[in-house]
Amino acid sequence: MHANVQPHVLDMRMIESVNNSIRHLSPTEIRSKMKRRSLRRVSIKPSSGVANDMHSGSDWDKAEFVLEELRRQCDTPADLLYRLVEDMVEEMKAGLAKEGGSKDYKMILTYVDKLPSGKERGHFYALDLGGTNFRVLRVSFGQDGSTPVFQEVSIPQEIMLGQHEELFDYIAGKLAEFVSKEDSSYHPRPGCKRELGFTFSFPIKQTSIDSGELIKWTKGFAVEGTAGKDVVQALNEAMERRGLDMVVTALVNDTVGTLAVASLAASKADAGDEVMISVILGTGTNACYVESIDAIPKWKGPKPSSGNMIISMEWGGFSSSLLPRTQYDEALDAVSVNPGEQIFEKLLSGMYLGDIVRRVLLRLAEEAALFGPSVPPNLLIPCILGTPHVSCMHQDKSSDLQEVGRILSNVLGIHETSLELRKLVVEVCSIIAKRAARLAGAGIVGILRKIGRDRSKHDGSSSHRTVVAMDGGLYEHYPLFRAEMKAAVVELLGSEVAENVLIELSKDGSGIGAALLAAAHSKYSRYGW
Ligand code: BGC
Fold this sequence. Notes:
By secondary structure, the chain is of the alpha/beta class.
């Protein structure tokens, strides 16, 4: 990832700047600082011919120091990832042993113990709530050629930060609007109601397939009064208040919906692949997987006939002290709506990557005057730089990094940037994205290890290929991120084992999967699983 920066040797000016920066340090601190400086591999400092084009007064030594420190702190070598994998597996076991057994993973029992059969029939609805938009959809199962009907609704900020009833009334209102446009062929039979799969992509304590209490909000939601309440009951009551003939029959996490849809697709393809894991890398992040019921001591119910249950890990809560965190991550966490929580999520999901990059650029502006004598005001605006901007800049293939220049100008108000400066920005994006992608890769390997799919077939493990179904904008729209993540998985598993692990995009599962699960748990239909 260092191809875009110019090799440069440590020169006298740099030694001087090191001297200045160590004046107040103890001998031990100096030794360790000097040792770290000697790790320097490349320089972002412009060559002398270019230096005149740069903003006068920029301190490239300082910029280089900041960048090298960032590289070092975000480094994720294989040995670190292996240790993280071990930590993850221990936390998974602890979370399965008893409720609250892991400090990090909720290991939520989803009450989904079988995957779709393909025999589901009828019209079903889904409400997919998990980000700044929610989606309402209707899916007609068992009708060849019928395509799902979607409607996307954005959630106003005041609702995301408002009161419990307001949120559910808002959603019920939009659901009522959606069905009011339907013709009579979709009206439920007398005595029946429309059935809805509710994808609620926040940590919940699920108590049955159609009930569960919110543990805490994530992803910028902070609706008052919802934590500890049954969200299905809240939605059913709001729908009743609207006079809507609809009822929730399945409450699912987006990871579970994705697993359900991917699994149905795999069983139709009949290639013997087993969808065991699903991961969302979008605004937030999480993973679910198929666990053997015997490995879930906290499950007190009857043993399901499949012998398995899907566990939604809520892996965003992972917080090992081994995680490679920086001052930027800590500052971001401190001003988030949930400080100290969702530490893993804050290192790798779409909601945060842009703002981490902004924070690094802000330091470069403040301490190295990299964008001119004063700090560009837009750099001070939290979240102004989104992960899509990071992805766009990182993947800019033009020789003069036009996209980078455009985003710096249009979004951050930094105009007339030199090529060297743009390269530096690309380097920051690359470091932050690579760390995120490799951590996600380690997360996947942690699950594979937990279910014994991280070994070669000679060890008696399943002879089927293991599918990891992926969804979420970060994964879908950021090819370099995907490539880094897959490379990390191969590096950790070894190529022979990795050949039997398919990491595949499975789109729109969160909504369609919820409708499928609603069909499977229909109160009126005889087509269940
Ligand atoms: C939520 C999870 C969800 C994930 C992906 C996280 O913030 O806690 O429930 O699955 O985002 O949407």
